[in-house]
Protein backbone atom coordinates (compact mmCIF):
# COMPACT_ATOMS: atom_id res chain seq x y z
CA UNK A 1 0.00 0.00 0.00
CA UNK A 2 1.46 3.41 -0.95
CA UNK A 3 2.00 6.08 1.72
CA UNK A 4 -0.61 8.31 0.16
CA UNK A 5 -3.36 5.65 -0.05
CA UNK A 6 -6.01 5.77 2.68
CA UNK A 7 -6.40 2.59 4.77
CA UNK A 8 -9.58 0.60 4.08
CA UNK A 9 -12.53 1.24 6.35
CA UNK A 10 -13.73 -1.24 8.92
CA UNK A 11 -16.89 -1.75 6.86
CA UNK A 12 -14.87 -2.67 3.79
CA UNK A 13 -12.79 -5.09 5.87
CA UNK A 14 -15.92 -6.80 7.15
CA UNK A 15 -17.29 -6.94 3.58
CA UNK A 16 -14.06 -8.51 2.32
CA UNK A 17 -14.17 -11.13 5.07
CA UNK A 18 -17.80 -11.89 4.27
CA UNK A 19 -16.96 -12.37 0.57
CA UNK A 20 -14.20 -14.87 1.35
CA UNK A 21 -16.19 -16.79 3.94
CA UNK A 22 -19.21 -17.08 1.69
CA UNK A 23 -17.36 -19.50 -0.57
CA UNK A 24 -15.98 -21.64 2.28
CA UNK A 25 -16.95 -25.32 2.45
CA UNK A 26 -16.20 -28.06 4.93
CA UNK A 27 -13.16 -28.99 2.86
CA UNK A 28 -11.82 -25.42 2.48
CA UNK A 29 -13.01 -23.66 5.65
CA UNK A 30 -9.74 -24.04 7.56
CA UNK A 31 -7.69 -22.65 4.66
CA UNK A 32 -10.13 -19.78 4.03
CA UNK A 33 -10.17 -18.95 7.74
CA UNK A 34 -6.39 -18.79 7.73
CA UNK A 35 -6.44 -16.36 4.79
CA UNK A 36 -8.98 -14.20 6.65
CA UNK A 37 -6.75 -14.18 9.74
CA UNK A 38 -3.77 -13.09 7.64
CA UNK A 39 -5.76 -10.13 6.28
CA UNK A 40 -6.98 -9.14 9.76
CA UNK A 41 -3.50 -9.38 11.29
CA UNK A 42 -2.24 -6.99 8.64
CA UNK A 43 -5.17 -4.60 9.02
CA UNK A 44 -5.19 -4.39 12.82
CA UNK A 45 -1.43 -4.30 13.08
CA UNK A 46 -1.23 -7.21 15.50
CA UNK A 47 1.30 -10.02 15.65
CA UNK A 48 -0.82 -13.18 16.00
CA UNK A 49 -4.40 -14.20 15.32
CA UNK A 50 -6.19 -17.48 16.05
CA UNK A 51 -9.59 -19.10 15.52
CA UNK A 52 -10.71 -21.79 17.95
CA UNK A 53 -13.90 -23.86 18.18
CA UNK A 54 -15.46 -24.95 21.45
CA UNK A 55 -16.11 -28.65 22.00
CA UNK A 56 -18.61 -28.58 24.84
CA UNK A 57 -18.86 -32.39 24.92
CA UNK A 58 -15.35 -32.53 26.42
CA UNK A 59 -15.18 -28.91 27.70
CA UNK A 60 -12.25 -28.01 25.48
CA UNK A 61 -11.18 -25.49 22.85
CA UNK A 62 -9.75 -26.78 19.56
CA UNK A 63 -7.40 -24.76 17.34
CA UNK A 64 -8.85 -24.36 13.82
CA UNK A 65 -6.60 -21.74 12.18
CA UNK A 66 -3.82 -19.34 13.11
CA UNK A 67 -1.71 -16.64 11.51
CA UNK A 68 1.16 -16.63 11.19
CA UNK A 69 1.53 -20.39 11.35
CA UNK A 70 3.95 -21.38 14.08
CA UNK A 71 7.17 -23.18 13.25
CA UNK A 72 8.81 -25.86 15.34
CA UNK A 73 5.52 -26.88 16.92
CA UNK A 74 6.10 -29.48 19.67
CA UNK A 75 4.34 -32.85 19.56
CA UNK A 76 1.84 -32.87 21.07
CA UNK A 77 0.99 -29.23 20.38
CA UNK A 78 0.04 -27.66 23.75
CA UNK A 79 -2.31 -25.24 21.98
CA UNK A 80 -4.11 -27.77 19.73
CA UNK A 81 -6.65 -28.80 22.37
CA UNK A 82 -6.95 -26.83 25.60
CA UNK A 83 -9.28 -28.16 28.31
CA UNK A 84 -11.12 -25.45 30.19
CA UNK A 85 -10.59 -27.19 33.52
CA UNK A 86 -6.83 -26.79 32.99
CA UNK A 87 -6.92 -23.32 31.38
CA UNK A 88 -6.01 -19.99 32.97
CA UNK A 89 -8.93 -17.74 33.93
CA UNK A 90 -8.46 -15.49 30.89
CA UNK A 91 -8.58 -18.43 28.45
CA UNK A 92 -11.36 -20.19 30.33
CA UNK A 93 -13.51 -17.06 30.00
CA UNK A 94 -13.99 -17.90 26.29
CA UNK A 95 -16.02 -21.04 27.14
CA UNK A 96 -19.23 -19.07 27.66
CA UNK A 97 -18.37 -15.42 26.80
CA UNK A 98 -20.93 -13.52 24.73
CA UNK A 99 -19.14 -10.20 24.09
CA UNK A 100 -15.61 -9.25 22.97
CA UNK A 101 -12.99 -9.14 25.69
CA UNK A 102 -9.70 -7.24 25.90
CA UNK A 103 -6.83 -8.35 28.14
CA UNK A 104 -3.82 -6.08 28.56
CA UNK A 105 -0.57 -6.60 30.48
CA UNK A 106 -1.45 -6.37 34.17
CA UNK A 107 -1.25 -8.53 37.29
CA UNK A 108 -4.65 -10.16 36.77
CA UNK A 109 -3.52 -11.68 33.51
CA UNK A 110 -0.17 -13.11 34.68
CA UNK A 111 -1.24 -16.76 34.07
CA UNK A 112 -2.30 -15.92 30.54
CA UNK A 113 0.91 -13.98 29.89
CA UNK A 114 2.94 -16.97 31.10
CA UNK A 115 1.06 -19.40 28.78
CA UNK A 116 1.72 -17.14 25.79
CA UNK A 117 5.35 -16.82 26.76
CA UNK A 118 5.67 -20.64 26.87
CA UNK A 119 4.00 -21.03 23.46
CA UNK A 120 5.49 -17.96 21.71
CA UNK A 121 8.51 -16.97 23.80
CA UNK A 122 7.07 -13.44 24.12
CA UNK A 123 7.24 -11.94 27.63
CA UNK A 124 4.37 -9.41 27.41
CA UNK A 125 1.23 -9.37 25.27
CA UNK A 126 -2.22 -7.88 24.95
CA UNK A 127 -5.27 -9.80 23.65
CA UNK A 128 -8.62 -9.06 22.07
CA UNK A 129 -10.96 -12.08 22.03
CA UNK A 130 -14.35 -12.05 20.28
CA UNK A 131 -16.63 -15.06 20.87
CA UNK A 132 -18.47 -16.96 18.13
CA UNK A 133 -22.07 -17.22 19.30
CA UNK A 134 -24.84 -19.37 17.85
CA UNK A 135 -28.14 -18.78 19.60
CA UNK A 136 -27.35 -19.01 23.31
CA UNK A 137 -24.25 -21.16 22.84
CA UNK A 138 -20.68 -19.88 22.58
CA UNK A 139 -19.16 -22.01 19.82
CA UNK A 140 -15.66 -20.57 19.56
CA UNK A 141 -13.41 -17.56 19.81
CA UNK A 142 -11.50 -15.27 17.44
CA UNK A 143 -8.39 -13.87 19.08
CA UNK A 144 -5.76 -11.22 18.26
CA UNK A 145 -2.47 -10.95 20.12
CA UNK A 146 -0.17 -7.93 20.16
CA UNK A 147 3.33 -8.35 21.52
CA UNK A 148 3.33 -5.51 23.99
CA UNK A 149 0.29 -3.34 24.64
CA UNK A 150 -2.55 -2.27 22.33
CA UNK A 151 -5.79 -0.42 22.87
CA UNK A 152 -8.94 -1.52 20.99
CA UNK A 153 -11.59 1.01 20.03
CA UNK A 154 -15.31 0.44 20.34
CA UNK A 155 -15.61 0.53 16.54
CA UNK A 156 -12.94 -2.15 16.17
CA UNK A 157 -14.63 -4.39 18.72
CA UNK A 158 -17.98 -3.92 16.93
CA UNK A 159 -16.29 -4.98 13.69
CA UNK A 160 -14.91 -8.03 15.42
CA UNK A 161 -18.45 -8.95 16.53
CA UNK A 162 -19.63 -8.71 12.93
CA UNK A 163 -16.73 -10.88 11.75
CA UNK A 164 -17.31 -13.53 14.44
CA UNK A 165 -20.97 -13.63 13.46
CA UNK A 166 -19.85 -14.50 9.92
CA UNK A 167 -17.41 -17.09 11.25
CA UNK A 168 -20.15 -18.64 13.41
CA UNK A 169 -22.31 -19.00 10.30
CA UNK A 170 -19.46 -20.74 8.47
CA UNK A 171 -18.91 -22.98 11.50
CA UNK A 172 -22.60 -23.96 11.56
CA UNK A 173 -22.57 -24.61 7.81
CA UNK A 174 -19.43 -26.77 8.07
CA UNK A 175 -20.89 -28.74 10.97
CA UNK A 176 -24.09 -29.29 8.97
CA UNK A 177 -22.08 -30.49 5.96
CA UNK A 178 -20.02 -32.80 8.15
CA UNK A 179 -23.18 -34.16 9.77
CA UNK A 180 -24.75 -34.80 6.38
CA UNK A 181 -21.58 -36.50 5.21
CA UNK A 182 -21.50 -38.57 8.40
CA UNK A 183 -25.14 -39.59 8.00
CA UNK A 184 -24.52 -40.49 4.36
CA UNK A 185 -21.76 -42.88 5.41
CA UNK A 186 -23.01 -44.18 8.75
CA UNK A 187 -25.90 -46.21 10.09
CA UNK A 188 -28.23 -44.01 12.13
CA UNK A 189 -29.02 -46.74 14.71
CA UNK A 190 -25.50 -47.85 15.61
CA UNK A 191 -23.16 -45.20 14.24
CA UNK A 192 -21.30 -47.90 12.32
CA UNK A 193 -20.45 -47.49 8.65
CA UNK A 194 -23.36 -48.19 6.30
CA UNK A 195 -23.50 -50.13 3.04
CA UNK A 196 -22.55 -47.09 0.93
CA UNK A 197 -19.46 -46.43 3.01
CA UNK A 198 -18.49 -50.11 3.05
CA UNK A 199 -18.73 -50.36 -0.74
CA UNK A 200 -16.53 -47.29 -1.24
CA UNK A 201 -14.00 -48.62 1.26
CA UNK A 202 -13.81 -52.06 -0.35
CA UNK A 203 -13.51 -50.50 -3.81
CA UNK A 204 -10.37 -48.78 -2.57
CA UNK A 205 -8.97 -51.84 -0.76
CA UNK A 206 -9.49 -54.02 -3.85
CA UNK A 207 -7.90 -51.59 -6.32
CA UNK A 208 -4.95 -52.92 -8.30
CA UNK A 209 -1.69 -52.52 -6.41
CA UNK A 210 -3.25 -52.58 -2.94
CA UNK A 211 -1.97 -55.21 -0.46
CA UNK A 212 -4.03 -58.35 -0.10
CA UNK A 213 -5.78 -60.61 0.42
CA UNK A 214 -8.65 -58.52 1.84
CA UNK A 215 -10.66 -60.55 4.37
CA UNK A 216 -14.35 -59.86 4.87
CA UNK A 217 -16.39 -61.29 7.75
CA UNK A 218 -20.17 -61.27 7.22
CA UNK A 219 -22.20 -61.55 10.47
CA UNK A 220 -25.86 -62.54 10.56
CA UNK A 221 -27.49 -62.76 14.00
CA UNK A 222 -29.49 -65.93 14.57
CA UNK A 223 -33.19 -65.58 15.47
CA UNK A 224 -33.23 -61.89 16.40
CA UNK A 225 -36.94 -61.94 15.52
CA UNK A 226 -37.64 -63.72 18.81
CA UNK A 227 -36.43 -60.66 20.74
CA UNK A 228 -38.48 -58.29 18.58
CA UNK A 229 -41.59 -60.45 19.00
CA UNK A 230 -41.13 -60.95 22.75
CA UNK A 231 -39.91 -57.53 23.91
CA UNK A 232 -40.66 -55.28 20.94
CA UNK A 233 -38.55 -53.62 18.27
CA UNK A 234 -37.19 -51.02 20.69
CA UNK A 235 -35.57 -53.83 22.67
CA UNK A 236 -34.33 -55.38 19.42
CA UNK A 237 -32.74 -52.06 18.42
CA UNK A 238 -31.08 -51.75 21.83
CA UNK A 239 -29.72 -55.30 21.46
CA UNK A 240 -28.22 -54.40 18.07
CA UNK A 241 -26.62 -51.23 19.49
CA UNK A 242 -25.02 -53.22 22.31
CA UNK A 243 -23.57 -55.73 19.86
CA UNK A 244 -22.30 -52.91 17.64
CA UNK A 245 -20.49 -51.41 20.63
CA UNK A 246 -18.94 -54.78 21.44
CA UNK A 247 -17.58 -54.99 17.90
CA UNK A 248 -16.12 -51.49 18.30
CA UNK A 249 -14.34 -52.56 21.48
CA UNK A 250 -12.58 -55.30 19.50
CA UNK A 251 -11.56 -52.92 16.70
CA UNK A 252 -7.79 -52.79 17.33
CA UNK A 253 -7.04 -54.84 14.21
CA UNK A 254 -10.25 -53.91 12.35
CA UNK A 255 -10.45 -51.12 9.78
CA UNK A 256 -14.20 -50.99 9.08
CA UNK A 257 -17.29 -52.27 10.86
CA UNK A 258 -20.48 -51.79 8.85
CA UNK A 259 -24.13 -52.53 9.46
CA UNK A 260 -25.90 -53.52 6.27
CA UNK A 261 -29.33 -53.28 7.86
CA UNK A 262 -31.44 -55.48 10.10
CA UNK A 263 -29.16 -57.87 11.96
CA UNK A 264 -26.36 -58.07 9.39
CA UNK A 265 -22.85 -56.69 9.95
CA UNK A 266 -19.63 -56.76 7.95
CA UNK A 267 -16.15 -56.54 9.50
CA UNK A 268 -13.05 -55.85 7.41
CA UNK A 269 -9.63 -56.28 9.12
CA UNK A 270 -7.13 -53.50 8.55
CA UNK A 271 -4.23 -55.67 7.39
CA UNK A 272 -4.11 -58.34 4.67
CA UNK A 273 -5.26 -61.61 6.20
CA UNK A 274 -5.38 -65.26 5.14
CA UNK A 275 -8.38 -67.52 5.73
CA UNK A 276 -6.96 -69.20 8.83
CA UNK A 277 -6.24 -65.88 10.59
CA UNK A 278 -9.64 -64.49 9.55
CA UNK A 279 -11.33 -67.57 10.97
CA UNK A 280 -9.51 -67.09 14.30
CA UNK A 281 -10.71 -63.47 14.36
CA UNK A 282 -14.25 -64.63 13.61
CA UNK A 283 -14.20 -67.01 16.59
CA UNK A 284 -12.95 -64.22 18.86
CA UNK A 285 -15.66 -61.80 17.72
CA UNK A 286 -18.35 -64.47 17.92
CA UNK A 287 -17.46 -65.17 21.54
CA UNK A 288 -17.78 -61.46 22.29
CA UNK A 289 -21.21 -61.25 20.66
CA UNK A 290 -22.44 -64.36 22.47
CA UNK A 291 -22.11 -62.70 25.89
CA UNK A 292 -25.46 -61.98 27.53
CA UNK A 293 -27.18 -58.59 27.21
CA UNK A 294 -29.48 -57.14 29.88
CA UNK A 295 -32.71 -55.72 28.41
CA UNK A 296 -35.69 -54.77 30.57
CA UNK A 297 -34.54 -57.09 33.33
CA UNK A 298 -34.06 -59.99 30.91
CA UNK A 299 -30.62 -61.51 30.33
CA UNK A 300 -30.65 -62.32 26.64
CA UNK A 301 -28.20 -63.67 24.13
CA UNK A 302 -28.26 -64.49 20.43
CA UNK A 303 -25.72 -66.45 18.47
CA UNK A 304 -24.21 -65.27 15.20
CA UNK A 305 -23.51 -67.06 11.95
CA UNK A 306 -20.36 -65.79 10.23
CA UNK A 307 -19.29 -66.12 6.62
CA UNK A 308 -15.70 -65.42 5.59
CA UNK A 309 -14.45 -64.54 2.11
CA UNK A 310 -11.13 -63.27 0.75
CA UNK A 311 -10.66 -60.81 -2.11
CA UNK A 312 -7.56 -60.29 -4.25
CA UNK A 313 -6.85 -56.63 -5.17
CA UNK A 314 -6.90 -56.03 -8.90
CA UNK A 315 -8.67 -59.34 -9.48
CA UNK A 316 -11.86 -59.41 -7.40
CA UNK A 317 -14.54 -56.72 -7.29
CA UNK A 318 -16.40 -55.52 -4.22
CA UNK A 319 -19.58 -57.25 -5.41
CA UNK A 320 -17.63 -60.51 -5.89
CA UNK A 321 -16.25 -60.33 -2.36
CA UNK A 322 -19.56 -59.52 -0.65
CA UNK A 323 -21.42 -62.13 -2.70
CA UNK A 324 -18.97 -64.81 -1.58
CA UNK A 325 -19.19 -63.71 2.05
CA UNK A 326 -22.98 -63.78 1.79
CA UNK A 327 -22.90 -67.31 0.37
CA UNK A 328 -20.59 -68.38 3.18
CA UNK A 329 -22.90 -66.98 5.88
CA UNK A 330 -25.90 -68.68 4.25
CA UNK A 331 -23.97 -71.95 4.49
CA UNK A 332 -23.28 -71.26 8.17
CA UNK A 333 -26.96 -70.57 8.86
CA UNK A 334 -28.03 -73.66 6.91
CA UNK A 335 -25.78 -75.73 9.17
CA UNK A 336 -27.91 -74.69 12.14
CA UNK A 337 -26.54 -71.25 13.04
CA UNK A 338 -23.80 -70.21 15.45
CA UNK A 339 -21.35 -71.50 12.86
CA UNK A 340 -18.39 -70.02 10.98
CA UNK A 341 -18.00 -70.88 7.31
CA UNK A 342 -15.20 -69.97 4.89
CA UNK A 343 -16.21 -69.49 1.26
CA UNK A 344 -15.38 -72.26 -1.23
CA UNK A 345 -15.93 -72.58 -4.96
CA UNK A 346 -18.49 -75.30 -4.24
CA UNK A 347 -20.58 -72.66 -2.45
CA UNK A 348 -20.29 -70.47 -5.53
CA UNK A 349 -21.69 -73.19 -7.77
CA UNK A 350 -24.54 -73.83 -5.36
CA UNK A 351 -25.23 -70.11 -5.13
CA UNK A 352 -25.34 -69.76 -8.92
CA UNK A 353 -27.74 -72.69 -9.16
CA UNK A 354 -29.97 -71.26 -6.45
CA UNK A 355 -30.08 -67.85 -8.13
CA UNK A 356 -30.86 -69.48 -11.47
CA UNK A 357 -33.71 -71.45 -9.90
CA UNK A 358 -35.09 -68.49 -7.96
CA UNK A 359 -35.14 -66.26 -11.04
CA UNK A 360 -36.76 -68.77 -13.40
CA UNK A 361 -38.89 -71.16 -11.32
CA UNK A 362 -42.11 -69.15 -11.67
CA UNK A 363 -41.93 -69.15 -15.48
CA UNK A 364 -40.89 -72.82 -15.47
CA UNK A 365 -44.08 -73.79 -13.64
CA UNK A 366 -46.06 -71.97 -16.31
CA UNK A 367 -44.22 -72.90 -19.52
CA UNK A 368 -44.04 -76.68 -19.37
CA UNK A 369 -40.38 -77.26 -18.45
CA UNK A 370 -41.43 -79.34 -15.45
CA UNK A 371 -42.05 -83.05 -15.97
CA UNK A 372 -43.05 -85.95 -13.74
CA UNK A 373 -41.22 -89.20 -13.20
CA UNK A 374 -42.72 -92.07 -11.25
CA UNK A 375 -41.09 -94.43 -8.75
CA UNK A 376 -42.79 -97.82 -8.50
CA UNK A 377 -43.61 -99.38 -5.14
CA UNK A 378 -43.25 -103.13 -5.41
CA UNK A 379 -44.24 -106.27 -3.54
CA UNK A 380 -40.80 -107.83 -3.15
CA UNK A 381 -42.33 -111.30 -2.91
CA UNK A 382 -43.87 -111.21 -6.38
CA UNK A 383 -42.62 -108.11 -8.22
CA UNK A 384 -46.22 -106.80 -8.43
CA UNK A 385 -46.52 -103.01 -8.69
CA UNK A 386 -48.66 -101.76 -5.79
CA UNK A 387 -48.26 -98.00 -6.04
CA UNK A 388 -46.35 -95.26 -7.83
CA UNK A 389 -44.88 -92.08 -6.32
CA UNK A 390 -44.98 -88.95 -8.49
CA UNK A 391 -41.65 -87.07 -8.45
CA UNK A 392 -41.21 -83.70 -10.14
CA UNK A 393 -38.24 -82.96 -12.37
CA UNK A 394 -37.07 -79.77 -14.11
CA UNK A 395 -35.76 -80.15 -17.64
CA UNK A 396 -33.30 -77.25 -17.49
CA UNK A 397 -32.04 -75.96 -20.86
CA UNK A 398 -28.36 -75.88 -19.80
CA UNK A 399 -28.12 -77.88 -16.57
CA UNK A 400 -30.01 -80.96 -17.73
CA UNK A 401 -32.58 -82.82 -15.66
CA UNK A 402 -32.76 -81.35 -12.14
CA UNK A 403 -34.04 -83.43 -9.23
CA UNK A 404 -36.52 -81.92 -6.73
CA UNK A 405 -33.77 -81.55 -4.12
CA UNK A 406 -32.33 -78.81 -6.34
CA UNK A 407 -35.38 -76.57 -6.34
CA UNK A 408 -38.03 -77.58 -3.77
CA UNK A 409 -36.24 -75.70 -0.98
CA UNK A 410 -36.01 -72.59 -3.17
CA UNK A 411 -39.70 -72.90 -4.05
CA UNK A 412 -40.54 -72.92 -0.34
CA UNK A 413 -38.34 -69.90 0.38
CA UNK A 414 -39.96 -67.76 -2.36
CA UNK A 415 -43.54 -68.86 -1.65
CA UNK A 416 -43.93 -71.02 -4.75
CA UNK A 417 -44.22 -74.37 -2.96
CA UNK A 418 -48.02 -74.25 -3.00
CA UNK A 419 -48.18 -73.44 -6.70
CA UNK A 420 -45.60 -76.11 -7.49
CA UNK A 421 -47.49 -78.67 -5.39
CA UNK A 422 -50.75 -77.91 -7.20
CA UNK A 423 -49.01 -78.35 -10.56
CA UNK A 424 -47.66 -81.75 -9.50
CA UNK A 425 -51.05 -82.86 -8.19
CA UNK A 426 -53.00 -81.79 -11.28
CA UNK A 427 -50.44 -83.20 -13.71
CA UNK A 428 -50.12 -86.53 -11.90
CA UNK A 429 -53.89 -86.94 -11.55
CA UNK A 430 -54.41 -86.10 -15.24
CA UNK A 431 -51.79 -88.65 -16.33
CA UNK A 432 -53.08 -91.26 -13.86
CA UNK A 433 -56.63 -90.79 -15.15
CA UNK A 434 -55.37 -91.15 -18.73
CA UNK A 435 -53.68 -94.46 -17.94
CA UNK A 436 -56.83 -95.79 -16.34
CA UNK A 437 -58.93 -94.71 -19.30
CA UNK A 438 -56.61 -96.83 -21.45
CA UNK A 439 -57.07 -99.84 -19.17
CA UNK A 440 -53.92 -99.81 -17.02
CA UNK A 441 -53.21 -98.94 -13.38
CA UNK A 442 -56.65 -99.74 -11.96
CA UNK A 443 -55.28 -101.59 -8.93
CA UNK A 444 -52.49 -99.25 -7.92
CA UNK A 445 -52.27 -96.20 -5.65
CA UNK A 446 -50.95 -92.81 -6.77
CA UNK A 447 -48.74 -91.26 -4.08
CA UNK A 448 -48.23 -87.50 -4.00
CA UNK A 449 -45.86 -85.58 -1.74
CA UNK A 450 -47.30 -82.67 0.26
CA UNK A 451 -45.11 -79.70 1.22
CA UNK A 452 -45.37 -78.08 4.67
CA UNK A 453 -46.72 -74.94 3.00
CA UNK A 454 -49.58 -76.84 1.38
CA UNK A 455 -50.46 -78.55 4.64
CA UNK A 456 -51.18 -75.25 6.43
CA UNK A 457 -52.82 -73.47 3.48
CA UNK A 458 -56.49 -72.63 3.92
CA UNK A 459 -58.67 -74.67 1.59
CA UNK A 460 -56.04 -77.35 0.93
CA UNK A 461 -58.47 -80.23 1.52
CA UNK A 462 -61.00 -78.65 -0.85
CA UNK A 463 -58.28 -78.22 -3.48
CA UNK A 464 -57.34 -81.89 -3.25
CA UNK A 465 -60.95 -83.04 -3.44
CA UNK A 466 -61.61 -80.71 -6.39
CA UNK A 467 -58.65 -81.98 -8.44
CA UNK A 468 -59.52 -85.63 -7.79
CA UNK A 469 -63.14 -85.00 -8.75
CA UNK A 470 -62.12 -83.07 -11.88
CA UNK A 471 -60.30 -86.09 -13.27
CA UNK A 472 -62.82 -88.65 -12.07
CA UNK A 473 -60.40 -90.56 -9.85
CA UNK A 474 -61.48 -92.74 -6.94
CA UNK A 475 -60.18 -90.85 -3.82
CA UNK A 476 -59.05 -94.10 -2.21
CA UNK A 477 -56.58 -94.61 -5.04
CA UNK A 478 -54.74 -91.39 -4.08
CA UNK A 479 -52.39 -91.21 -1.09
CA UNK A 480 -50.86 -87.96 0.13
CA UNK A 481 -47.45 -88.25 1.81
CA UNK A 482 -46.56 -85.95 4.72
CA UNK A 483 -43.00 -85.96 6.08
CA UNK A 484 -42.65 -86.91 9.73
CA UNK A 485 -40.85 -83.71 10.75
CA UNK A 486 -43.86 -81.68 9.55
CA UNK A 487 -46.10 -83.82 11.75
CA UNK A 488 -43.91 -83.12 14.75
CA UNK A 489 -43.57 -79.37 14.12
CA UNK A 490 -47.31 -78.59 13.98
CA UNK A 491 -49.31 -81.52 15.25
CA UNK A 492 -52.58 -79.59 15.68
CA UNK A 493 -52.66 -78.31 12.09
CA UNK A 494 -51.60 -81.73 10.83
CA UNK A 495 -54.36 -83.43 12.80
CA UNK A 496 -57.05 -81.13 11.38
CA UNK A 497 -55.77 -81.42 7.79
CA UNK A 498 -55.39 -85.22 7.92
CA UNK A 499 -58.91 -85.56 9.33
CA UNK A 500 -60.23 -83.45 6.45
CA UNK A 501 -58.36 -85.55 3.88
CA UNK A 502 -59.75 -88.74 5.37
CA UNK A 503 -63.27 -87.29 5.20
CA UNK A 504 -62.60 -86.65 1.51
CA UNK A 505 -61.72 -90.35 1.09
CA UNK A 506 -58.01 -89.85 0.45
CA UNK A 507 -55.30 -92.06 1.95
CA UNK A 508 -52.52 -90.49 4.04
CA UNK A 509 -48.95 -91.72 4.59
CA UNK A 510 -46.21 -90.48 6.92
CA UNK A 511 -43.05 -90.20 4.86
CA UNK A 512 -39.45 -90.46 6.15
CA UNK A 513 -40.75 -92.22 9.26
CA UNK A 514 -38.26 -92.76 12.09
CA UNK A 515 -36.49 -89.38 11.81
CA UNK A 516 -38.93 -87.24 13.81
CA UNK A 517 -38.40 -89.00 17.16
CA UNK A 518 -41.54 -87.65 18.83
CA UNK A 519 -44.06 -88.58 16.13
CA UNK A 520 -44.63 -91.92 17.86
CA UNK A 521 -46.54 -90.21 20.66
CA UNK A 522 -48.92 -88.65 18.12
CA UNK A 523 -49.39 -91.65 15.88
CA UNK A 524 -52.42 -93.02 17.71
CA UNK A 525 -54.30 -89.73 17.22
CA UNK A 526 -53.57 -89.39 13.48
CA UNK A 527 -55.84 -91.32 11.08
CA UNK A 528 -53.05 -92.34 8.70
CA UNK A 529 -52.92 -95.44 6.49
CA UNK A 530 -49.23 -95.99 5.76
CA UNK A 531 -45.80 -95.55 7.28
CA UNK A 532 -42.79 -95.22 4.97
CA UNK A 533 -39.50 -96.21 6.64
CA UNK A 534 -36.89 -93.51 6.01
CA UNK A 535 -34.12 -94.53 3.60
CA UNK A 536 -31.41 -93.70 6.14
CA UNK A 537 -32.43 -96.80 8.14
CA UNK A 538 -32.76 -99.03 5.06
CA UNK A 539 -29.52 -98.25 3.22
CA UNK A 540 -27.24 -100.29 5.52
CA UNK A 541 -29.68 -103.06 6.39
CA UNK A 542 -27.92 -106.40 6.45
CA UNK A 543 -24.71 -104.86 7.82
CA UNK A 544 -25.76 -102.38 10.54
CA UNK A 545 -27.45 -103.99 13.57
CA UNK A 546 -28.55 -100.59 14.85
CA UNK A 547 -30.58 -99.91 11.71
CA UNK A 548 -32.11 -103.37 11.93
CA UNK A 549 -33.26 -102.70 15.50
CA UNK A 550 -35.00 -99.49 14.40
CA UNK A 551 -36.61 -101.11 11.36
CA UNK A 552 -37.89 -104.03 13.44
CA UNK A 553 -39.42 -101.58 15.91
CA UNK A 554 -41.17 -99.70 13.08
CA UNK A 555 -42.47 -102.99 11.61
CA UNK A 556 -43.90 -103.95 15.00
CA UNK A 557 -45.42 -100.50 15.40
CA UNK A 558 -47.12 -100.68 12.01
CA UNK A 559 -48.54 -104.12 12.83
CA UNK A 560 -49.85 -102.84 16.18
CA UNK A 561 -51.69 -99.96 14.53
CA UNK A 562 -52.81 -101.96 11.50
CA UNK A 563 -50.90 -99.75 9.06
CA UNK A 564 -49.37 -100.52 5.69
CA UNK A 565 -45.58 -100.34 5.75
CA UNK A 566 -43.29 -99.31 2.88
CA UNK A 567 -39.49 -99.29 2.94
CA UNK A 568 -37.80 -96.45 1.05
CA UNK A 569 -34.35 -96.50 -0.53
CA UNK A 570 -33.91 -100.23 -1.08
CA UNK A 571 -30.67 -100.32 -3.06
CA UNK A 572 -29.03 -103.61 -2.05
CA UNK A 573 -30.10 -107.23 -2.16
CA UNK A 574 -29.07 -107.55 1.50
CA UNK A 575 -31.50 -104.79 2.49
CA UNK A 576 -34.32 -106.34 0.48
CA UNK A 577 -33.80 -109.80 1.97
CA UNK A 578 -33.55 -108.42 5.51
CA UNK A 579 -36.85 -106.56 5.10
CA UNK A 580 -38.57 -109.66 3.74
CA UNK A 581 -37.32 -111.84 6.58
CA UNK A 582 -38.78 -109.42 9.12
CA UNK A 583 -42.17 -109.05 7.49
CA UNK A 584 -41.89 -105.89 5.36
CA UNK A 585 -42.61 -106.78 1.74
CA UNK A 586 -43.58 -103.40 0.21
CA UNK A 587 -40.61 -101.33 -0.94
CA UNK A 588 -39.25 -98.85 -3.44
CA UNK A 589 -35.68 -98.08 -4.41
CA UNK A 590 -33.07 -98.37 -7.12
CA UNK A 591 -32.68 -102.13 -6.63
CA UNK A 592 -36.26 -102.49 -7.83
CA UNK A 593 -36.59 -99.58 -10.27
CA UNK A 594 -35.35 -96.07 -10.80
CA UNK A 595 -37.89 -93.25 -11.33
CA UNK A 596 -39.11 -93.40 -14.94
CA UNK A 597 -41.01 -91.05 -17.24
CA UNK A 598 -44.78 -91.24 -17.69
CA UNK A 599 -44.80 -93.17 -20.98
CA UNK A 600 -42.40 -95.80 -19.60
CA UNK A 601 -44.48 -95.99 -16.42
CA UNK A 602 -47.62 -96.69 -18.45
CA UNK A 603 -45.85 -99.55 -20.26
CA UNK A 604 -44.63 -100.96 -16.95
CA UNK A 605 -48.14 -100.79 -15.49
CA UNK A 606 -49.44 -102.65 -18.52
CA UNK A 607 -47.09 -105.51 -17.66
CA UNK A 608 -48.19 -105.27 -14.01
CA UNK A 609 -44.97 -106.36 -12.37
CA UNK A 610 -41.21 -105.86 -12.22
CA UNK A 611 -38.70 -108.65 -12.77
CA UNK A 612 -36.82 -109.13 -9.51
CA UNK A 613 -33.08 -109.73 -9.74
CA UNK A 614 -32.53 -111.57 -6.48
CA UNK A 615 -33.15 -115.24 -5.66
CA UNK A 616 -36.73 -116.39 -5.02
CA UNK A 617 -35.56 -119.04 -2.61
CA UNK A 618 -33.60 -116.47 -0.62
CA UNK A 619 -36.60 -114.16 -0.55
CA UNK A 620 -38.79 -116.86 0.91
Automatic annotation (TrEMBL):
PROSITE patterns recorded: EAL (PS50883), GGDEF (PS50887)
Top-rank lineage group of the source organism: Bacteria
Regions that span the bilayer: none
NCBIfam families given in the database record: GGDEF (TIGR00254)
Record PANTHER family: BIOFILM ARCHITECTURE MAINTENANCE PROTEIN MBAA, DIGUANYLATE CYCLASE DGCP
Protein's UniProt name: Bifunctional diguanylate cyclase/phosphodiesterase
Source organism of the structure: Mycolicibacterium duvalii
Amino acid sequence: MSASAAPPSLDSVVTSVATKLMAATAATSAQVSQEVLADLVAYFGVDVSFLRYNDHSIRASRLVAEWPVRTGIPDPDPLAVVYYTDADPVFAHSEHAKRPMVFRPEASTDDYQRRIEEGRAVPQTSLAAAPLVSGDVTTGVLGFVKFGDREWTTEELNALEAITSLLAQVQARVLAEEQLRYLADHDDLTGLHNRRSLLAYLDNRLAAGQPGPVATLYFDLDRLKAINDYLGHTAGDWFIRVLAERLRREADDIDVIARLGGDEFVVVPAAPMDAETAEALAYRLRNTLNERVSIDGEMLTRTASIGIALGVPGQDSTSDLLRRADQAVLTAKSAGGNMISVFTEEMSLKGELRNDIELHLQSVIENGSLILHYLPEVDMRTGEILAIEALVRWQHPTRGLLSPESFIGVAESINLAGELGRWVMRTACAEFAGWRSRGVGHNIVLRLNVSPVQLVTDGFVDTVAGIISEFGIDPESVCLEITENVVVQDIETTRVTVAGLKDAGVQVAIDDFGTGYSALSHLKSLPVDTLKIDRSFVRELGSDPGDLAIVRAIIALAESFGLELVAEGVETEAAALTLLRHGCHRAQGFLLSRPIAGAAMESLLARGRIALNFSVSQRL
